[in-house]
Amino acid sequence: MKAVCLLSGGMDSSTLAYYASRQGYEILALHVNYGQRTEAKERAAANKIARLIPALDFVEVDISYLRQFGMSSLTDHSIGVETFDETRADLPNTYVPFRNGNLLSIATSYAESQAADAIFIGVQAQDYSGYPDCRPQFIEAFQQAIDAGTRDGTRIRLITPFVSMSKSEILGIGMKIGVPYEYTWSCYQDEEIACGICGACHFRRAAFESLGLKDPIKYRGG
Amino acid sequence: MKAVCLLSGGMDSSTLAYYASRQGYEILALHVNYGQRTEAKERAAANKIARLIPALDFVEVDISYLRQFGMSSLTDHSIGVETFDETRADLPNTYVPFRNGNLLSIATSYAESQAADAIFIGVQAQDYSGYPDCRPQFIEAFQQAIDAGTRDGTRIRLITPFVSMSKSEILGIGMKIGVPYEYTWSCYQDEEIACGICGACHFRRAAFESLGLKDPIKYRGG
Fold this sequence. Notes:
- 2 copies of one chain form a homodimer.
- Chain A is about 35% helix and about 10% strand.
- The first copy, chain A, has helices at about 10-20, 40-50, 100-115, 135-150, 165-175, 200-210, and strands at about 1-5, 25-35, 55-60, 120, 155-160.
- Chain A is globular, with a radius of gyration of 17 Å.
C-alpha cells in the first residue's frame, strides 16, 4: 500500500505522516509551498520528518501563484498576521481561499500517477479557525470529485483521521507513536523563534499544556 | 457580474471566453501552463484572445510541477504524443491525471479572492478522448466541493456550456459570435505549423469540415 501524505512540516501533518506509516502505508510525502511567510522553516521541517519516517519519496510543489490572487496574510506579506482572537466570528485573515482544494488536486494527480491507494491530509475542523476547506463536508465532496475525475480503474481513498479530533488528541497520538516534535514547525509569523501568539502557535501551545507536556520548541519571550 | 474563464488559447476555451463575455460577464482570464509541449504557442493565443475580448484581467499560472509526476505525453517530453486512433478503448497517453481538478481549484481560489460569480470551463465530454475529468459527473462533484470548501457567503457557479455539445456545435456558436479562430491554437504536438494528426488537430479539423468551413490556420502537409 502506498499513500500520498500532505506534509507541511507542522504538528498535525507530521503526526499524520507517522500515523499513516504505522498503518502500513509507504509514504509519498508531498510538501506544498504556497508562498507563506515561514516556508523555508516548514520545508526543512517536512524534509527532516520525511527522512526520519523514512518516506519512499519527497516531492515539493510550488503554488505561490496563489499570491497573485491576494486576500490572505499568509501569502500577501503586506498584510499583518492576526493574532488569535477567540471572540471573532468571521474568518481570520490567514485564510487562503480554497487552499485545500489546490493541495488535494495536486495530491490526486500525484496519487493517480504513482498508483497510490490513498491520500492523507491532516485537516481538523474542531479547534481550528473555521476554514471552510477543513470541514468534513468539503472532504466528502472532494472524495466524490476524485472518484468522478480519475480513471475508472483508479480508487484513491481520501483519509482524514484527525478531522474530528482536537489538537490535544492528535498530540496524544503523536506522543504514543514517537513523533519527534522538536523538528516540526507551526508558527505562521516568524522563522527564527516561534512568535507564540499567532493562531497556529496558540493552538499548538494549548495542546501541549492540556496534556501537561512541555513543547520541545522555543517561543519568543519565554 | 464577473467570471473567471479558463483560457488555454484553443478553440473551445476561446469560444467559451467570447460566449461568457456575450452573456454579460466581465472576464477574468486564467491561463494555466502545465508543462505541455506547445505552451508558448498556447499562451500567445490566450493572451491575444483576452486582449480582443477585452478581458478585465489576464493571469498566468504555472503548474508544470505536474511534470514531476510523469505519466502523460503532454508533460513528459520523452513520451511521443499518440496520433488519434478511434479504435482504442483506453485513455490516450495525452491524459494528465486530474488536470481539470488542478485547473478548477486554481480558478476557485482566484474567483473567491476576486468575488467572482462564476467559473467557465470549456470541457466537453462528447467527442473528446474520454478524459474522466471532462465528464459531467466530475463537474457536478466539483461544484459540491466548491460550495463546501469556500466561505458560507461565497456562491461561485461552475458553468460548462459546452459539456454536452460536439465540437461542431461549439464551432457553430463561435462563428455566430465572431470568435477569431485564426488566433487560436489547438495542436498538442508542434508549435510552428499544426501537425494535423494528433487528437486535438483531428477533432478541430473534423469540426470545420462538418460545417463546410475552412480552418483559418495552416496544417503540415496541406
